Amino acid sequence: MRPEPTLVLLAAQSDAPGARESAEALAAALRAAGHPAAEALFIGGRDHWTQLDLRDETNPMRRHLLGMLEIDETYGSIEDVIETRRFWRNPAFSTAGFWESGLEVASYEADERFLHTLNLLFAKPSRPRPLRPGRYHAIDLLDFVERRATETGASGDYLTLTNVRGEQVVWRISELRPFAPVIVIGLDDERELFRLTDVYHTLRRYTWKDPEPVPWVLARPLGAFIQFREQPPPELDPNLFGRVALLPESFALTRDDPLEPLRSLPEPVRAMVTEEFRCVSCHQLRGVGAAAGHLRATDAARVGGVALALETYPPEVWRRYCFEQGDVAAEIGASVVNLGDRAGLLFELVETERRRSGEPTPTGSTPPGP
Question: How much is the pTM?
Answer without folding.
Answer: 0.80
